Amino acid sequence: MSTELELKYGCNPNQKPAKIFMKQGELPVTVLNGRPGYINFLDALNGWQLVRELKKATGLPSAASFKHVSPAGAAVGVELDDVMRKIYFIPRSAGQLSPLASAYARARGADRMSSFGDFISLSDKCDVSTALLIKPEMSDGIIAPDYEPEALEILRAKHKGAYNVIKIDPSYEPEATEIKQVFGVYFEQGHNNVEINEKLLENVVTKNKELTPGAKRDLVISLITLKYTQSNSVCYVKDGQAIGIGAGQQSRIHCTRLAGSKADNWLLRQHPRVLELPFIKGLGRPERDNAIDVFISEDFEDVTGEGKWQSLFTEKPVPLTGEEKREWLGKQTGVSLGSDAFFPFGDNIERAYKSGAKYVAQPGGSLRDQDVIDACDERDMVMCFTGLRLFHH
Prior knowledge:
The protein is an alpha/beta fold. The chain folds into 3 domains: 4-168, Cytidine Deaminase, domain 2 (3-Layer(aba) Sandwich); 177-268 and 329-385, Cytidine Deaminase, domain 2 (3-Layer(aba) Sandwich), CATH 3.40.140.20; 272-319, Helix Hairpins, CATH 1.10.287. Helix content is 33%, strand content 20%. Strand 7 (139-144), helix 5 (149-156) and strand 8 form a beta-alpha-beta unit. It is globular, with a radius of gyration of 21 Å. The protein starts with a strand and ends in an 8-residue tail after the last strand. The mean pLDDT is 95.
């Protein structure tokens, strides 16, 4: 380890010189392969904190897929069923996945379009099962506390040997205060070391107070994910994984809509007609991801129109009608929703409910709290006031 590390450049190629460094002690990271950049390290260090906290809170191996300093997906190691394996492009030859590999597959699969070219974070030593899933994906790099020798060789071979592989000291803890500079002005604040766990969910303010163990786990996952997501943000979670993250929006309803649309896409990918799309042989994963995303959108003619479908499919697929989409989305239930700040209006609850939200965790504290509670009660939803704001910038 060393006290500083020179980077290729900053956020953009014209921003030179660039480096990461420690004022005291050694860097907690070692580059095992490649040459990570400025944004790579921002994603890596935020992602590492996220998965470390998920592991501590749930006891399960955890993974995150980061893009531009916000997670595109985050998940814990819950086993995948056959449908999940299919929509995440996991071949039968992969066999039984390790819990860590399952976590990675879920994190990557939450929003595959946004995860293209991501930076991966793992809570545990990267094993061969996980490395083999990462191998065919378009990714910029990975951070983990350690790597099995064979897994490291698999990763080192990516990008013609230029794949970024970072090892982090799992015992490292940051100083109590953190400093950043903007336009020559220094900012200092206490590190956000608040612990997120199920105790935050004890203040249930709705008539329905039945929080299942799975809902508690998923609400904790949503809140920890939000802790490392650019604000404003909301996060939909189901079955141990984020299924929709709305990051960096100025309006909370726009966060809810954006994340809800991603959650809807996640469910529509599981529709039988989508699962059976007749892709031509040899079509790459990014091309399939994009085709699926467009096929389930209002712009479906861009991939089903004459002269267009032939480059993607062996036969012309029949688009889903609006009624078919609504019927399928109506099957979405048991989703947990977290928000990094209070909901100012009940319209957020109404929109979240359309994407299957049943359980909600938010700080509370709005002048219209009762309106939001009433909106939940009208839909028999369960809502907790955590009293904890989770802005991140």
